[in-house]
Amino acid sequence: MKIAFIGGGAMGEAMIRGILAKKVALPQDMVVSDVSAVRREWLNKEYGVSTLDDNRKAAENADLIVLAVKPQNLRQVADDLKSPSPGQLVLSILAGGTLSNLCRDFNHSSVVRAAPNMPAQIGQGITVWSATAETSDEHKELSQAVLGALGKEIYVADEKYLDMATALGGSGAAYVFLFIEAFIDAGVHVGLPRHIAHEVVLQTVIGSACSVEKMAKHPAELKNMVTSPGGTTTEALLQLEKGAFRYHLIEAVAAAHGKAQRL
Fold first, then answer.
1. For 11-28, what is each residue's pLDDT tens digit?
2. Do residues 202 and 177 touch, judged by C-beta distance below 8 A?
3. What pTM, to 2 d.p., does this model score?
4. Could you tell me if 89 and 210 lie in one domain?
5. Sheet with 3-6, edge to edge strand ranges
6. Structurally, how many domains does the chain consist of?
7. C-alpha to C-alpha distance for 193 and 154, rounded to whole angstroms
């Protein structure tokens, strides 16, 4: 399987790293096209992949063409790669850009649109993806293998769920990072040294997420296991409810979803 990456930025590199780690493809099976000479040199040195500054040449012999450029550069890439061969699969990880628009811009019908998130950079991401009706089962299996190298992947038949997944999982990493930052600051505020607050918060977040996954209980049930009548947790949760924590989180996701639809 030959893979061409159009764009070698953070997410493109994450895919290369994951593909190599999961042995989905070998370095000699991949080529990266990027406008930055520094970036091309780094990717070649670090991963042993071939690099070029020519999108068309990079894609000409590929089975899979991964679009990993910024959305504002998509038009130029589409002009470079107009009408890939029928046997090639185009996979886009760009924010926005519907399947129908990608098919139109590239004059191609075998297209996958995927919405990975930032933790994919360490192989712990979640990617929701969809494909055109013309995409073969073989190409879907190829997409599943490549996207699975980033962490977990979920296929959806209806493309509308991708903007929702972007608001929840794509943007969601930022919500979690903000929560962790504020949580650590709260620990410092009550008197813990910052390095201790950092460790306590980080392991609490990791352990809590793992508990939801492994204990197979609803988050509310797990929350109740921690909450004693009249205790410290009850007092803290009261303050979060006063601040409409749930409401603001739901509104934040809804706002991100609206923005994703407008892109």
1. 999 999 999 999 999 999
2. no
3. 0.91
4. no
5. 50-52, 30-33, 3-6, 64-67, 89-92, 111-115, 125-131, 151-155
6. 2
7. 41
